[in-house]
Sequence to fold (398 residues):
Amino acid sequence: MDALIRSVAIGTIKDVAREIEAAASLEERDWWDRTAWLISVQAGELDKASLLKEHGADQGARGRCGKTALLYAIENHHSAMLEWLIQNSAAVDETDDFGTTPLMCAAEYENSEALDRLLRAGANVDDSRHHEQTALSSATSRAAAIILLDAGADPSKLSYEGRRAVIGLPSAPDEDELAVSEDQFRSGRMRRFGTANPEEIKDPFWHCMIRAGVAAFQAKRRYKFGGNDDRSAVWCAQRFGQSITFLSNGDIVQVAGEHEDSYDEDFCIYNDVFVHKPDGEIQIYGYPASVFPPTDFHTATLIGDYIYLIGSLGYSGHRHYGTIPVYRLNTESFAIEPIETRGICPGWIYKHRAVLSGPDEITITLGTLVTHNESGEAHTSNTQTFVFDASLSFWRIA
Fold:
């Protein structure tokens, strides 16, 4: 091992100074491609890092896979070192070779102090250079997810594990939570629509599936169901494109979403609503499809006592090109009603971003638009900004 690197790793500040005075190479690297500077940061040795900096050590040095000094400080929870690096102009959005930002690293390592400090330093909360994933995608703890959501992170980027953590469930699914009988499984295994607006559904299997968080195939396996005799979809709470909304009374509302892709036998787009109470109680509401159709990849924006549900991908053959689905969920009664809108709307859109931009205005950006012509259905990126005035049910282009 290089003498300077060794003195930084296990020696004293005097040992480091002696090696520097002996003209040791400041940029020599160890087997993990780390310089003495990077090791001082990884170890949280502020005095050694400062001494190396004073003597010209490369502060932009990167370890294996392009790991930056900030990433070393964050993953090792060295808050004082992180503060010092930021004060010395470390780039808070610089990534490693895989596109991992410091915010992503802080979320992954559940480093709440680092998340807060990086955000105050101007880190981009929705940086998505890493395969369209953001820091929120890496968050699997409630604390990390809430910090990022409060900072304005796009809630659609929250992972399934992150959503479970936020609503107060263990982030990792647990098949042992499926504590229902075989008869209860068979009674509740299929999706059904509500018979009222809303109908509270107290099916034991559905409630256990929410708490367990497992995929439909795991429930089939546990209850020895399926095969060539029955390939119908099993009801599942593990979903994509499910919105999440936080109410002022502490309730957390999840709306609809889909399980699996269209080629899978368990593919299903849902139209139900979960309400998670602060004490752990879960309420499930169902709706007639004529009142609220199966919906996924929509947005949910809270205005007063209402959650405005905008957009959807939905089932093929049920898309009304040129229009946009808008529904209003009453957070007191949990009734849903369609909103007939006017003006210039985006059209059939999904995977977009919605931000409350005024007391009654919701701004829509990004997303994918679905259109249809003689060649068939086309999915193209939305490049415009639209504003929906909820008080007037009116759309305009910003």
The chain has three domains: 3-166, 176-296, 310-398.
